[in-house]
Amino acid sequence: MSNSSDRSRLPISGLGLVALLGWIGLLVALSWWMAQQAYRWLPVQASTAAPLVDGLFSFETGIGTFVFGAVVSVMAWVLLKHRADKYDESDAEPIEGNTRLEVIWTVIPLLLVMAIAVYAMRVNTKLGVLGPMEHIHLANPVEDQGGYAVDRLPAEQVEVIARQWSWEFRYPSANVSTTELHLPVDQPVTFRLVSDDVLHGFYIPAFRLKQDVIPGRAINFNLTPTREGRYRLRDSQFSGTWFAANQADVVVESSEVYQAWLENAARQPLQSGLSDAVIEYGERKQLKNPGWATVPPAPPPQVNVPGSNSLPHDA
């Protein structure tokens, strides 16, 4: 009994313990380095949410690196130190389970998962970007003579309308509609997200925020841009054939430039907005073999300012 108990304890010499602690320290240093590198893999930070999300991603990268390194290290140690000789065909020595080791490899993953969960819950609480959700009836919209919904938006909000396959942004305070989203820097904004047809995804990588746009629902979504520049809004949900082309520019600018843009946009007549899907669909219809059947894109929205989808953007 004593011999079996001694084997299960797997005693480590002093030199071996020093080597083990040194290797663990090296893994910790490598994990910290990888966690710092993770920030470089992401787009620029352009909202108050971005540092929080990036911090969580960095934390998870560091933990993942440590776990991966530890598992690979154990596998390498077993392969190099405990493999059988080349012509050894005998059975391995029967060894009973090591309770202490089993407790260790159960507790450590539990603590790591709980640490990630607690960190993620804290980030989610700080973000607080999702507001109340309400049911809407798109079959019978209530609109005024200008085509804007009545009693739907306070002045500080922007209505975002997703379609197959274009985006439209309405500013009720200025009675402006556009297919290019403009926002003032360092000013909180609340979006009212609606879909005219299917499920879409409102996703701006530089802001690190994504929200599904659900048909029949109006969802309030809050964010604060913190960096001037031109970014890209993408449809993160598969909404049909041209969902990848369902993109729009997001321009973050100073409050003075933003107000000047609003005033100028309000003086512009309505015209067709941007819709790459409509252009591509028209080109495809001209082909002798247009390919598979698809849903025709919705007509381009009538807007004051179409904007541009060919200018360079940061993310």
From TrEMBL:
<comment type="similarity">
    <text>Belongs to the cytochrome c oxidase subunit 2 family.</text>
</comment>
<dbReference type="InterPro" id="IPR002429">
    <property type="entry name" value="CcO_II-like_C"/>
</dbReference>
<dbReference type="InterPro" id="IPR008972">
    <property type="entry name" value="Cupredoxin"/>
</dbReference>
<feature type="transmembrane region" description="Helical">
    <location>
        <begin position="55"/>
        <end position="80"/>
    </location>
</feature>
<feature type="transmembrane region" description="Helical">
    <location>
        <begin position="12"/>
        <end position="35"/>
    </location>
</feature>
<keyword id="KW-0472">Membrane</keyword>
<keyword id="KW-0812">Transmembrane</keyword>
<dbReference type="Pfam" id="PF00116">
    <property type="entry name" value="COX2"/>
</dbReference>
<keyword id="KW-0249">Electron transport</keyword>
<dbReference type="GO" id="GO:0042773">
    <property type="term" value="P:ATP synthesis coupled electron transport"/>
</dbReference>
<keyword id="KW-0813">Transport</keyword>
<keyword id="KW-1278">Translocase</keyword>
<feature type="domain" description="Cytochrome oxidase subunit II copper A binding">
    <location>
        <begin position="153"/>
        <end position="264"/>
    </location>
</feature>
<feature type="region of interest" description="Disordered">
    <location>
        <begin position="289"/>
        <end position="315"/>
    </location>
</feature>
<dbReference type="GO" id="GO:0005507">
    <property type="term" value="F:copper ion binding"/>
</dbReference>
<keyword id="KW-0186">Copper</keyword>
<feature type="domain" description="Cytochrome oxidase subunit II transmembrane region profile">
    <location>
        <begin position="34"/>
        <end position="131"/>
    </location>
</feature>
<dbReference type="InterPro" id="IPR011759">
    <property type="entry name" value="Cyt_c_oxidase_su2_TM_dom"/>
</dbReference>
<comment type="function">
    <text>Subunits I and II form the functional core of the enzyme complex. Electrons originating in cytochrome c are transferred via heme a and Cu(A) to the binuclear center formed by heme a3 and Cu(B).</text>
</comment>
<keyword id="KW-0679">Respiratory chain</keyword>
<dbReference type="InterPro" id="IPR045187">
    <property type="entry name" value="CcO_II"/>
</dbReference>
<protein>
    <recommendedName>
        <fullName>Cytochrome c oxidase subunit 2</fullName>
        <ecNumber>7.1.1.9</ecNumber>
    </recommendedName>
</protein>
<keyword id="KW-1133">Transmembrane helix</keyword>
<dbReference type="InterPro" id="IPR036257">
    <property type="entry name" value="Cyt_c_oxidase_su2_TM_sf"/>
</dbReference>
<dbReference type="GO" id="GO:0004129">
    <property type="term" value="F:cytochrome-c oxidase activity"/>
</dbReference>
<dbReference type="Pfam" id="PF02790">
    <property type="entry name" value="COX2_TM"/>
</dbReference>
<feature type="transmembrane region" description="Helical">
    <location>
        <begin position="101"/>
        <end position="121"/>
    </location>
</feature>
<keyword id="KW-0479">Metal-binding</keyword>
<dbReference type="GO" id="GO:0005886">
    <property type="term" value="C:plasma membrane"/>
</dbReference>
